[in-house]
Amino acid sequence: MINLYRWIVSEAKKDGADADIAKYDGQWEVEGTKKLINRGDLGLVMKSRAKHSAISTMLDQPFVFDTKPFIVQYEVQFQDFQECGGAYIKLLSASDKLKLEELHDKTPYTIMFGPDKCGEEKKLHFIFRHQNPVTNEFEEKHAKKPDVDIGKFFDDKTHLYKLAIFPDNTFKIFVDGELVNSGSLLEDFQPPVNPPEEIDDPDDKKPDEWDDREKIDDSDARKPDDWDEDEPMEIPDPAAVKPESWLDDEQQYIADPTAKKPDDWDAEMDGEWEPPLIDNPKCKESGCGEWKPPKIHNPKFKGKWIAPKIENPNYQGEWKPKKIKNPNYFNDEHPFTMTSIAALGFEIWSISPDICFDNILITSDEAAAEKGSFLSRFAEAAEEKPWLWVVYGIGLTVPFAILGYLCFPKKRDEAAERKRTDAPSPDDPQSSRRDKEEEESKETEKKKVPERK
């Protein structure tokens, strides 16, 4: 048993397949992608081409479908594009018989979700296994086709697939944050969760005398006397005239006069050598060989005569068998309560190798899923346009800088401000002394000035 971190590679064999292709011998690695080998971000990569590959891991705790939503999302990157094969995830049903090292195509699962492609056929699966409460047997229910063209998601870029199922029996599917499908577990799956109350009676047979012909041939109609069924659809154009320059004795094709027999031609092995034929250059202007007038539509052509149709006076309508009560009828109003999930895995076959799976999340917390989706789209955009890291950095730095400026304003230097404005400081002893000396000097000057008479 191979263990990649917490992932267990299957060693099972596929039922009903030839021995040389039945074994699950596809290789798996935990490594970086080809485009971003130095980024340090590792993913689970299916390495093999045209092999059955299966790998799985247990959940930390089983997911129980009760009153909370179920959300699963994961990233897929077809590093070498995708020719034919799947990249869907299987959410394995909780069971005492579950053995991850024996994961194969018949291992019971609760939900299968993800992309699949072969040639021009492209799918986005959402399948859940529903248990019939009458027979206790499980049946696969397939969601309706997506509402948008999903072909654009099968390139070599990373795409985030997300499935959300809610306790009110509704579901939504997103790819890269774009809503591509939504609906009801009760109304948008085939076959339907709940069977019809009535079914056709299998023992009811159409009577031999039942006439379901809506129209019949008019028995009173007669073919007109001048109707000639032998007239051809086209006839030679009687107005056509052979061109005067037409060369009756020339062949349309002639032997290539420039062709030479190969030196290694063996007449005994290859037969008598003959030069290849080319168009006769003499025939370019008008034509060569036997001249035949062109064909035109025959105005007398009518084809085979068919009697006209009339209403059938004995028409009884389309026969349908009578209805009886369905012995297997049931009404499950809560298909959301599916079998608990104990593990997740990938059981796939693909022509294209190097399919990378990453950032797998199973949760009932819509906010956590949305956060994961945002971070995934953030990283994907930066992978495609590295200069966006600079934009993101500036976008994150500027708000914090403004917040810091508002919360922690710069302390003003009061001394520098007084120096700039020459304003005195009441607590400065030198300033107080200087002010006192100036006052005494002014009083002395006043005494020296004599009074005018």
Write up this protein:
It is a single-pass type I membrane protein. Disulfide bonds join 84-118. Keywords: Chaperone, Disulfide bond, Endoplasmic reticulum, Membrane, Transmembrane, Transmembrane helix. The chain is an alpha+beta fold and 453 residues long. Among the domains are: 3-195 and 335-383, Jelly Rolls, CATH 2.60.120.200; 414-443, no CATH class. Helices cover 17% and strands 30% of the residues. It has six helices and 25 strands. The chain has helices spanning 19-22, 267-270, 366-384, 388-407, 414-421, 429-448, and strands at residues 3-4, 7-9, 28-31, 43-46, 51-63, 70-78, 84-86, 89-93, 109-118, 121-131, 138-143, 158-165, 170-175, 178-184, 189-190, 198-200, 215-217, 234-236, 253-255, 277-279, 295-297, 309-311, 323-325, 341-350, 355-363. The chain is extended, with a radius of gyration of 44 Å. The model has no long low-confidence stretch (mean pLDDT 86).
Low-confidence stretches: none
Portion in strands? 25-35%
Biggest sheet details: 10 strands, antiparallel
The percent range for helix content is 10-25%
The CATH first-level class of one domain comes to Mainly Beta
- CATH topology name of one domain, in short, is Jelly Rolls
Question: What is the alpha-carbon Rg in Å?
Answer: 44 Å
Terminal CA distance reads: 127 Å
Query: Mean of the pLDDT scores?
Result: 86
Count of extended strands: 25
What is the overall silhouette?
A: extended
Number of helices: 6
Content-based structural category: alpha+beta
Q: Provide the CATH architecture of one domain.
A: Sandwich
